[in-house]
Amino acid sequence: MNHSILVTGGAGYLGSILVPELLAAGHRVTVLDNFLFRQNSLAHCCADPNFELVRGDCRDESLIGRLLEDADVVIPLAALVGAPLCKLDPVGATSTNLDAQLMLLRRLSPDQRVLMPITNSGYGIGEKDRFCTEETPLRPVSLYGIHKVEVEKALLDRGNAISFRLATVFGMSPRMRLDLLVNDFVYRACTDRSIVLFESGFKRNYIHIRDVAMTFLFGLENFDRMKDQPYNVGLSDANLSKRELCTVIARHVPELVVFEAPIGEDPDKRDYIVSNEKLERTGWRPRHDLDRGIVELLKGYRMIRNSVYGNV
Length: 312
Description:
Pfam families: Epimerase (PF01370)
InterPro entries: Epimerase_deHydtase, Lipid_A_modif_metabolic_enz, NAD(P)-bd_dom_sf
Structural class: alpha/beta
CATH topology of the largest domain: Rossmann fold
Domain NAD-dependent epimerase/dehydratase: 5-234
Number of helices: 11
Protein name: Nucleoside-diphosphate-sugar epimerase
Organism: Tistlia consotensis USBA 355
CATH architecture of the largest domain: 3-Layer(aba) Sandwich
CATH class of the largest domain: Alpha Beta
Number of domains: 2
Order of helices and strands: EHEEHEHHEEHEEHEEHHEEHEEHH
Oligomer: single chain
Distance between the termini: 51 Å
Largest sheet: 7 strands, parallel
CATH superfamily of the largest domain: NAD(P)-binding Rossmann-like Domain
Shape: globular
Number of strands: 14
Helix content: 25-40%
């Protein structure tokens, strides 16, 4: 079944991968984005007659109301993403990540379906050697996580929706992000051949961006049997500490030197391991492991150099 899908924030890191996949599957897709980062990451979609693009703000209620008139599925990606950015701009984070999302949910009709990305950072600091499942109490430690947890509650209370609690995402995208942990560490390994670790034993789960995109398509295809539930989305063999992640990267960058700082704190205090069994029981399987993603990133970083103020 083909759908008319509204994707807010569709020109971002995830949307740049997801939107072409939705179009390839035969769906009609309208993207709303404010192009905050001046990206042209969906330029290759413009020739598709099933693609429409609206430049605007997800906080504009009248605009959202008009766009919802033609949508039977909504995928709200628009957000200020990540704990550091939300800490830098808490007012913008609150208006975008919380107020705008709650407004969107209020404007939906009961029959409109929602597939929403939520962060598994809502688990906060987990218990040692105990997996976080979808029944584990949520204890977010960042403003980003707090907003996501509140929105997820409203989403599931509203119903006719699926919540995907995403692990830390990695991989190349037309709208690239270097601030994500794997992407950052591989970039440092590639350019500096060294990484300095704070709180190196802190663990988290990881997932490739293309597997995230395919998770949304999987949710669309299996909506009726998955709806009104949250699902952890991650690699079950990649519940790794930062130190362990560096060991994996070093398999591909043998000259990498890792230093552990005796002082200092990571601004993102997440520390937990996650079970993805609930999603796997539906038949979902990831296609990209961590090693494959690291190889991909090393190729991508031959194109990307963050050196606007350097001579090299």
